[in-house]
From TrEMBL:
The keyword Hydrolase applies. Belongs to the Nudix hydrolase family. GO terms for molecular function: hydrolase activity; nicotinamide-nucleotide adenylyltransferase activity. Its cofactor is Mg(2+). InterPro entries: Cyt_trans-like, Nudix_hydrolase, NUDIX_hydrolase-like_dom_sf, NUDIX_hydrolase_CS, NUDIX_hydrolase_dom, Rossmann-like_a/b/a_fold. Gene3D superfamilies: HUPs, Nucleoside Triphosphate Pyrophosphohydrolase. This is NUDIX domain-containing protein.
Amino acid sequence: MRYDYLVLIGRFQPFHNGHLSVLRHALRLAGKVIVLIGSAGQPRTTRNPFNVGERAVMIRAAAEDQAERLLIRPLRDRLYNETVWVADVQRLVAEVLEADGAAPDATVGLIGRDKDGATGAYLAAFPQWPLVDVQHTDVLSATELRAWLFSGEAGALRLVEANTPPGVFGMLEAFRAGSPAYAQLAREDAFMRAYRQSWAAAPYPPTFVTADAVVVHSGHVLLVRRRAEPGKGLWALPGGFVEQGETVRDAAIRELQEETRLKVPPAVLRGSIKGQQVFDYPGRSLRGRTITHAFYFDFPTGDLPKIRAADDADRVRWIPLGEALLMEEQFFEDHFHILEHFVGGA
């Protein structure tokens, strides 16, 4: 074998035959494969329908009798801090090697498809590990498989079955047949399809502009729980779409007060802005290309102002920052990453 360890990074949503082809190649070249499962800690969405534990089971089921040679670890997203993400990967690999009792001179490589675009760019971030470049396998992508899984169309399951290992397909079939989570995600998928269809006739894909408010008061952050799709039941920062004739700052304040009935005058809010940032990760919203401007309102001390859920929120809470920074799986879209940007915790 050419390597003691090969590192394989992916989201595996779900694990399909293309992933299996890469994994088998890695097992032929290395004694053990370190599998880092990305997007760990994300809420269930149509883009991330399966948690880390479920994806680990898929991978082990597909690997069959080689599963003992897999060292699987969760890997968080760092949408707005690629340097921290690279450091996370390096740290996880170092921890795995130490825990596995690897020799100091153990050979480590990275395996993946060196393709154009952002999906393959991460491979260049680890020059210390030789790259094993694998060829494309002609199967449906994970994105296509998710679309078929939630479509409800006749014959959809046959396509999913043809492109996933038997053990994985069994899990997907059971998930589709009896999981309450699947029912909620199917409703979300139908909502998103209709939403995107409403502007499908535009001459070019639109870019939406939103504004969000990060309000921190006496060690607490103000969050709303979403009343309806998309993201029904998830916690979010107060915010929404910018209206014609208003600035993004005024939109953030308006949405903040509409959703929370926060008892703070707009003039005081404007004077309490301690930071602002544009968040434009291309895939941050399933609704389409959406760029948000977030404003950080800071009130270091004092009693927490009264609030009341209204508009798009079915609940509103002042949540201690220490608690909020442990709630990544309960946040809508990239709102956890936005909060983390302003208050730390990375």
